[in-house]
Amino acid sequence: MLGYIARRLRATVFVLVGVSALVFVMVRLIPGDPALILAGVDASREQAAEVRRGLGLDQPIWVQYARYVRRAVEGDLGKSIHSRRPVWREIRDHFPATLELTMVSLALAGALGIVVGVVSAVRRGSALDSLAMVGSLAGVSMPIFLLGVLLIWLFSLYLGLLPTGGSPPCLFCVDHLRHLVLPAITLAGVSVGMVARLTRSTMLEVIHEDFVRTARAKGLAERLVIYKHALRNAMIPVVTYMGLQFGVLLGGAVVTEQIFSWPGMGRMLVEAIESRDYPVIQGAILFMAAVFVAINLLVDLLYGWLDPRISYE
Amino acid sequence: MNSLFRGRYLAVAGLACLLVFVAGVLLAPWIAPYDPQRQVIAERLQGPSAKHWLGTDQFGRDIFSRVLYGGQVSLGIALLSVLLGLVVGGLLGLGAGYFRRLDGPVMRAMDVLLSFPAVLLAIMVVTILRPGILTVIIAVGVRSIPAFARMVRGAVLVVRSLPYAEAAAAIGASHLRTITRTIVPNSLPPVLVFSTLQIANNILLAAILSYLGLGIQPPGAEWGLMVSQGRGWLRDAPHVAMMPGLAIFAVVLAVNMVGDGLRDRLDVKLKESA
C-alpha cells in the first residue's frame, strides 16, 4: 500500500509539473504583450521595456518558468492587471463560493442518482426502470446552460419563487439558500444521469454475486439483502465515480456561475478572459487544475480504503 | 445495419431522429423558409406561428431557419473535432499501445491534458487563438485527443495480445504491415462506438464555448450562441432561447441513444467471442 501511495504521489508530482508547464506556455502564446498592457497604452518604448525587465520577461524562457514555479509554490501567483490585487487573494475570495456550489451539487446528484439507480435495478425490466433509464439518458444529454435557462424561466420568471441569480453576502441565511437552489440543481443535472446509470449497472452485477445468493438462501428479508448487502458493495465504484465527478463539476461550475452570476472562480475566470487579465487567467486555471489533480489522487487512494480487495501490485 | 440495431428500439428511434436532423441541416438552403440573417424588425420576438414555425428572435430573424443553418455549424464542429481527436489521439494511442517505449511518455502527456476539466482546457485554447469556427474545432478537438489516445491504446493492447497478432509477428510481418493489416482493423469497432459518444460530448462543449461568448461570434448562427443571445428575452419571449437549446438536446440525445445501442451490441459480440 505504501509503495502504491509513493508511486501515485510521484506520478502526481509529474502531472503537476506538466500542468504548470502547459499553463505557462499557453499563457505566453496568448496574443498581446503583458508589459505593454501593464505599462498602459500611453507608455513609451523605454517604459514598456522597464516593465518587461521588472516582470523578468527579458530572461530566457526556462529562467522565466523556473521563477514562475518557485513563486507559485510560495503562493505568489502575481497581481491582477485590473484590480492590482494579488491573484491568490482573488482566488481566496472566489473559491469558497465555487466549492460550496460544487459540494451541494455533488450531494444532490449523489442522493438522487443513487435512489433512481437502485430503484431501477431492483425493478429491472419494469416500466419504472425504462422511464428512469430514458430520463437518465435525457439528463446526460441536457446542455447545462439549457437546464439553467429552463429553471430560471420556470422558477424565477414564471412562478416567481426563486431569484434569477447572484448571491447575498450572508452565508447561513435563508436568502443565501434561495440563491443557491437553482445553480445547484443545474450543476447537479450534469451528473445525476451518469450516477443513476452507474448505480443501476453495478447493482445488477452485485445482485448476481454469490454472497447475495447466500444472503437470500439464509432467509434474509429482500429489503435487507438489497440495502445491507448488495447496495453497500455496489457503492464502491459509485463513490469513486462521484469523487472524480467533483473535478468535472468544478469545470461545469464555470458555466453555471456565468448563468446565475454566482460569485465563484468560474465567473472570475470568464471575466478575466474578457478583460485579458493574464495573471488571473494563469493563476485560476493552474489552481483549478491542481485541485482537480489532488482530488483524483485522493479518490485513487480512498478506493483502496473503501475496497480492501483491491490489489496495489 | 438491420442486424446491428435489431431489438434495440431506443437506438433505432435515435438513429431515425438523427437522420431527420442531418437531412434537415444538409438541406437547409432548400428547406429553410428564410435567409437566416434576414432581419424584419416589425416581426421581432414573435411566437411560433404558421409563418414562423419556431417564432422570431430579437432582430425579427426566423428561428427555424437559423436552427437549420446553425445545425450545419454545430454538427460540422462536432464531426471535425472528433476527427481531429481521432486522428491525433488515435495515432498517439496506437504508438503507445504498440511500441512499449512510447507508452510511458505519451500516456503521461495525456495524463497532463486530462488533468484539466474539459471546459478549462477548451477555454485556454480559445484564449490563445482568435474566436471562430476553426478555433472552436481545435479547442474541442484538443480535449478529445487524450480520451481517444487512452481508448485506442487500450484497444491496441487487447488486440496485440491475441494469438493472430502474435502469429503475424511470428511469421516476420513488418511493424507497418502488422499495424495496418492486423492491429488497426481489429481495434476499430470499440473506437468507432467511442467516436459516436464523443460526437455528443463535442456538440455540448462547442455549444458551451459559444454560450460563454468564446466560440462562434454574432451574427453567426450557432445553437449555443443563439441560446446565449436569447437569454435577455427570457421573460417576454422564452422561445428565442429554448428552441435552439432544445435542438441541441434532441441531437445529443439521439446521438447518445445510437451510441448506447452500438455499445450494447458490441459488448454482446465481445462476450460471445470470449
Strand residue content of chain B? under 5%
Q: What structural category characterises the helix and strand content of chain A?
A: mainly alpha
Largest interface: A-B, 45 and 44 residues
Largest beta-sheet characterization of chain B: none
Number of H- or I-type helical stretches of chain B = 10
Give the low-confidence spans of chain B: 268-274
Overall geometry of chain B comes to elongated
- Give the topology string of chain B: H per helix, E per strand: HHHHHHHHHH
Topology pattern of chain A, helix = H, strand = E: HHHHHHHHHHHH
Q: Got a strand count of chain A?
A: 0
Oligomer: heterodimer
List unreliable stretches of 5+ residues of chain A: none
Helix content of chain B: over 70%
- SS-derived structural category of chain B: mainly alpha
Characterise the protein shown here.
The complex is a heterodimer of chains A (313) and B (274). With 313 residues, chain A is mainly alpha-helical. Chain A has twelve helices and no strands. In chain B, 51% of the residues are buried. The two termini of chain B are 23 Å apart. Chain B is elongated, with a radius of gyration of 22 Å. Chain B is mostly helical and 274 residues long. Classes of the chains: A mainly alpha (313), B mainly alpha (274).
Short précis:
The complex is a heterodimer of chains A (about 325) and B (about 270). With about 325 residues, chain A is mostly helical. Chain A is built from twelve helices and no strands.
Task: List the defining traits of the structure above.
heterodimer, A: 313 residues, mainly alpha, 12 helices, 78% helix, 0% strand, globular, B: 274 residues, 10 helices, elongated, disordered C terminus
